Amino acid sequence: MRNPRRPLFHLLLFAFFVAGCEMSNTTGPADATGVADLPRLSEVTEVRFDELSQELAQFDSFLDRVEPDEPDSTSPPDTTPDTTPDTTIPPEDVTAEDEVSEVTQLEPTFSFAIVADPHLSGNPDHRENLVRAVNRIIAERDNFQIELVFILGDIAWGETDGLSNVADARSILDPLEDAGMHYIPVMGDNEAQYGGEEEFHDIFAPQYEHLAESLDSWVKMPTPSGGLTLDSFSFEYKGCHFVSADFISREIGHESCDIHNFDGGSWPWLLADIAAASTLIDHQKR
Q1: Across-strand partners of 145?
Q2: Which of 203, 115, 190, 209 has its CA nearest to residue 163?
Q3: Per-residue pLDDT tens digits for 85-129
């Protein structure tokens, strides 16, 4: 029986796909003075939806191989007598100490913060906003048990007064590590549209190396691949698997989505990463 949660995944993937397609006619990264106009959803072509349907079918086929079937609620009940000894503690015998003991066996929890679209491209207000966000996260670290900080795309590109905005962004973000939190920079479509992928990777290379040493099972997709500098990676942290797949189109003037479905591209890398993570989780359960 197909996992009932899979339609929710389809809905989320559809939402991300439409969000990417809605930006397909923009003229490049928004500058410091405003945001490029976005076309209406009606302008999304049928071809893109056909592509999405094909990819969903491919992903379903993959999940059928790595995801165990769930019981079919329509199947007749199993009437075979259960001879397993009952070791359940009767409810009246459960004490407060028993309940506390179960709670204290749980793994320590943690939180992660997200900073999206800092847009350091020459606007001093954007830079100040990033500084304030970093300072706020540091101040709230202990209150919310923040251990990871994801910087999700459109971090910085270009230069201001002859200085790299990407290097400036890193100088603002590095104090997060000094405060005991790992920050994970994720490249956005604006960096790609500006042609700044290599600069982004070069400047954040020391941070990626630090993450590889600090996080379990850190894997970064080899790049360049297919002539593209793709930014895909994954890692494990306290029982959670985090994965970031680069689905950014490299077509200049079109901030749309592209799963890069070719040998060595983001899509086959993502499928392999999920399969490896599933194997790791099964091993941990045993």
Answers
A1: none
A2: 203
A3: 555 545 555 555 554 444 444 555 899 999 999 999 999 999 999
Could you give the 3-state DSSP secondary structure of residue 164?
strand
Q: Which residues pair with 184 in a beta bridge?
A: 150
Residue 237, pLDDT > 50, answer: yes
User: What residues does each domain of the chain span?
Assistant: 108-214
User: What's the rounded Cα separation, in Å, for the pair 218 and 242?
Assistant: 10
Phi and psi at 120, nearest 5°, equal: -80, 100
Task: Find out if CATH 3.60.21.10 is the number for domain 108-214.
Answer: yes
Q: Rounded to an integer, what distance in angstroms lies between the CA atom of residue 50 and that of residue 46?
A: 6
CA 275/CA 273 separation, integer angstroms: 5
| 117 within 8 A of 152, measured Cβ to Cβ | yes
How large is the average pLDDT for residues 48-76?
59
pLDDT in the model for residue 92? 54
